[in-house]
Q: What sequence folds into this?
C-alpha cells in the first residue's frame, strides 16, 4: 500500500475507509468531542435565546478531557515507536518533526490570519469579546497560557498550547532513562514513570489551588503548567491496554458506564463539595473517567454502523484540527460582525449558514494543506 493511502481524502459521505488502518471507535470519540466543543461555542449567538446552555458546558468540558486522553493515547504510540526503542536522539528528533508538521504550519497560518483580522477589523467592532490585550509572540511559541490566563484573542487554541508543551516535555524523561539504562523501558517501568509524573503534577496543581483558590476555568483548567498531566492519562491507558488487554476488553462496557457517569457526577455533584477540594481533584478524576471511556471506544468495532455514516464520522475526525482552528475566532466571530441574531429564529438561520460554511472551509483546508503535509511527513 502506498503511503499516500495512509492519509485518505476527506469527502464527506464518500470518504473511502475500506483500506484505511484507522480505528473507527477512536474516530467516533474524536468526532463526538469535536462536534460537542463546536456546539458549546455557539453560546455566543444561541445562549440569549436558550437558557439550557448552562447545563451543556460541563458536557463540553468532559469532551475536551476526552480529547486530551485521546491525544495522549495516540501520541503514546509514537513515543513507543520512536523514543522507547533507541538510545540515540534520531527517534526523538523524528517524533518532534512529526508533531511540528502536524500542528504548527496550519496553526501559524491562522495565527497570521486572525491577527490580521484583529488589527484591521475586529478591534474596531462594537462586540465585547474583541476588547482584548495580547502579545502575538506568546502565541507563536505557545506561551499565551503557559502559567497565566489565556487572552481573549484566538481563545479556542488554549488546549493546543497544553498539547504542544506536553508533546515537547513528555518524551524527555523516557528518552533520558533509555539513554541511561542503554535499553528500552519495559511497560511496567513506563507505567511507574507515568504514574509518578501524574502524582507530581497533581501535587503542583493542589498546591496552587490551596494557596490561590483560582477561578476554575480560565485560571486553572486552561493553564499549561497545571494541566501537563492531561495527556498522561491517555498514554497510561495505552500502557494498561498493552499489559491487561483481555481484562480491559472484557469489561469495556462497564468502563464506559463508569467513566460517563463518573464524569457527569464529578462535574454536577462535585460542585456541592468544598471549592478547594473540588478544584484540587476535578482535573484528576475527570481525566481518569475519560480514559476509562476511551477503552470502550478502542475495543468496540461498531460493525453495525452503515458505510455512509462511517464515512461521515471519518471525515469529521480527519478535519477536526481544521475545525478547531477555524470555528470560533476566524469564522463565527467574523460572521457575527456582519449579523448578530436578534431572536431564536434568526439564531437557527445563523447556525445553518455557520455550520455549512465551516464544513466547506475545514474540508478544503484538510485536503489542500493538512493532507499534503501529512503525506510529506510519511514519506
A:
Amino acid at each position: 500500500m502506498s503511503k499516500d493511502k495512509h492519509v485518505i481524502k476527506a469527502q464527506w459521505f464518500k470518504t473511502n475507509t475500506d483500506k484505511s488502518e484507522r480505528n473507527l471507535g477512536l474516530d467516533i470519540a474524536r468526532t463526538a468531542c469535536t462536534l460537542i466543543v463546536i456546539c458549546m461555542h455557539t453560546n455566543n449567538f444561541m445562549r440569549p435565546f436558550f437558557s439550557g446552555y448552562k447545563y451543556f458546558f460541563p458536557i463540553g468540558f468532559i469532551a475536551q478531557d476526552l480529547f486530551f486522553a485521546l491525544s495522549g493515547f495516540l501520541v503514546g504510540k509514537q513515543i513507543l515507536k520512536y523514543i522507547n526503542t533507541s538510545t540515540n536522539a534520531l527517534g526523538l528528533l523524528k517524533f518532534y518533526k512529526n508533531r511540528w508538521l502536524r500542528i504548527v504550519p496550519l496553526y501559524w497560518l491562522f495565527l497570521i490570519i486572525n491577527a490580521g483580522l484583529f488589527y484591521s477589523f475586529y478591534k474596531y467592532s462594537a462586540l465585547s469579546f474583541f476588547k482584548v490585550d495580547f502579545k502575538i509572540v506568546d502565541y507563536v511559541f505557545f506561551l499565551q497560557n503557559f502559567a497565566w490566563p489565556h487572552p481573549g484573542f484566538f481563545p479556542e487554541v488554549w488546549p493546543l498550547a497544553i498539547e504542544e508543551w506536553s508533546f515537547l516535555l513528555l518524551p524527555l524523561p523516557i528518552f533520558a532513562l533509555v539513554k541511561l539504562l542503554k535499553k528500552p523501558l519495559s511497560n511496567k517501568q513506563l507505567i511507574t514513570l507515568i504514574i509518578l509524573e501524574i502524582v507530581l503534577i497533581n501535587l503542583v496543581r493542589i498546591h496552587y489551588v490551596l494557596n490561590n483558590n483560582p477561578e476554575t476555568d480560565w485560571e486553572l483548567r486552561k493553564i499549561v503548567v497545571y494541566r501537563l498531566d492531561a495527556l498522561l492519562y491517555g498514554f497510561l491507558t495505552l500502557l494498561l491496554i498493552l499489559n491487561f488487554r483481555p481484562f480491559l476488553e472484557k469489561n469495556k462496557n462497564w468502563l464506559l458506564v463508569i467513566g460517563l457517569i463518573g464524569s457527569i457526577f464529578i462535574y454536577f455533584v462535585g460542585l456541592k463539595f468544598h471549592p478547594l477540594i473540588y478544584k484540587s481533584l476535578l482535573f484528576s478524576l475527570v481525566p481518569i473517567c475519560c480514559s476509562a471511556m476511551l477503552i470502550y471506544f478502542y475495543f468496540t468495532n461498531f460493525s453495525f454502523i452503515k458505510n455512509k455514516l462511517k464515512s461521515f464520522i471519518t471525515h469529521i475526525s480527519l478535519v477536526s484540527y481544521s475545525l478547531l482552528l477555524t470555528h470560533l475566532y476566524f469564522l463565527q466571530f467574523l460572521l457575527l460582525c456582519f449579523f448578530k441574531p436578534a431572536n431564536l429564529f434568526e439564531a437557527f438561520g445563523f447556525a445553518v449558514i455557520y455550520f455549512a460554511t465551516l464544513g466547506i472551509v475545514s474540508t478544503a483546508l484538510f485536503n489542500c494543506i493538512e493532507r499534503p503535509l501529512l503525506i510529506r511527513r510519511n514519506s
